[in-house]
Structures are given as structure tokens and as C-alpha cells.
TrEMBL record:
This is DUF493 family protein. InterPro entries: UPF0250_YbeD-like, YbeD-like_sf. It comes from Flavobacterium chuncheonense. SUPFAM superfamilies: YbeD/HP0495-like. Gene3D superfamilies: 3.30.70.260.
Length: 94
């Protein structure tokens, strides 16, 4: 992981720790190219977690936004999910 990414995750953990009581319901938002495999990969990362997943395609159909609401146990588990999905080509985490 590069220094910029590491600093981002340290800052994110600090913000999550200070703004929420854990465990908590967390809303992940991603934008991915509208590719069935990429969408399935993102959604599959939350299988068997009781997640509520919704998605919608952009007007042009090039991108799909994915919202995932799921119970997370602590800031580290949230960060682990973001890191797990960072390997999806073209993903944007919001």
C-alpha cells in the first residue's frame, strides 16, 4: 500500500471511531463500470452478511452505482472491505 493510501485509511479509521458507536449499520457506496462481473464481485463481497444492496445505472449505462447497507463490527472491518474491493478495476469508493 502506498503512503497516500495508508494515510487515507488512518484518517478514515479515526473519523469512523469518533463519529459512530460500534457495531453500527454502515452504508458503503461504490461506482463501478457497468460490467456484470465487476458488479457481481462487489456484491459478492457482502454475501452472508445480511446486507441490503441496491444499484442503479447511469444515464449512459457506462457506470453502475452500488449502495450497500450492512452491520459492521468496527472501523477495521469497514476499512478491510474497502481494501478488499480496491482491486476491482475502475471502482470508485465514496
Amino acid at each position: 500500500m502506498d503512503k497516500k493510501s495508508e494515510e487515507f485509511y488512518v484518517r478514515l479509521k479515526e473519523e469512523l471511531t469518533n463519529t459512530s458507536d460500534w457495531p453500527t449499520e454502515y452504508l458503503f457506496k461504490f461506482i463501478v463500470p457497468s460490467d456484470i462481473e465487476k458488479i457481481a464481485h462487489v456484491e459478492g463481497a457482502f454475501n452472508n452478511m445480511g446486507a441490503v444492496i441496491s444499484n442503479s445505472q447511469s444515464k449512459t449505462g457506462k457506470y453502475t452505482s452500488i449502495s450497500i447497507s450492512v452491520q459492521m463490527k468496527d472501523p477495521d472491518s469497514v476499512i478491510a472491505k474497502y481494501q478488499e474491493l480496491s482491486s476491482v478495476e475502475g471502482i470508485i469508493s465514496l
